[in-house]
Amino acid sequence: MSKNLLCIFWFGFILFIIISELCYAQTGMDANTLVLFNFDTPSNKTVVNESGDANLNGELFGNAKIAQGEGKYGGCLILDGDGDYLRVNPFGNPDEGTVEFWFKVPHANPSQKSLAPGVLWTLTSACGEYGESFDSPFILATHTGISSPNLWFGIWTDKWIVADSGIDANDLTGQWHHVAGTWGKRGLEIYIDGKLSGENKDFAGTLPDPAYKAWIIGSDSWKADVEGAIDGVRLSNKQRTKSELLMSLQVQSSGKLVSVWGSIKKGSI
What we know:
By secondary structure, the protein is an alpha+beta fold. It has a single domain, classed as Sandwich (Jelly Rolls), CATH 2.60.120. 17% of the residues lie in helices and 36% in strands. The chain is globular, with a radius of gyration of 19 Å. It starts with a helix and ends with a helix.
């Protein structure tokens, strides 16, 4: 092998390793990633879980759709606020976890479908089936009777334990924002755009209700539908740290490198 060819080979190999490690570290595509939806592949019904567990694929309901080029980066989930949502099977009851994604809502008006008048709208919830009015193991929402009008992350025991962001939901409209709710040894936390915005130390441990039937994105079992767009959903069985969440934001701004890492793992590139 000539000296030039040898240099090219080693340059390519090193570049491959750098890209692989960068994608792995920044995207959070690791052993703790249960679900990942980037919404970059058109779908009429099923949204494939990019972490590889087909049992946790998503199913579109109502007029929910995947729209290419309308997301924070690439495609996204579009919801019209009238019976639209993405349903995922229960993911178990991990002792700790994080749910995170980008969202963009045009307004903070109450849902017109809600069976519970106090719930304005719900971004995501582990709960009963849509319309069953079943209180949730966790919920990321805004509610007139709880920390109104702020966005909060809560877990239901025999009452709501809430991490209040302190941010009025009306101030989160019209632009893309990243939100994360975590639970675990640090208690409950809510992060907005990479900043720890609220926490509650009164809860630590596994999700309290093993009987929940679904994880719903864009609504809950009370039909508190949200109108808007959701992108880059990741569910982990780890209470992610602030630095991990900031890294997630950075890689998304680089253009969803998670897809590159997935291709590398599968050997397609």
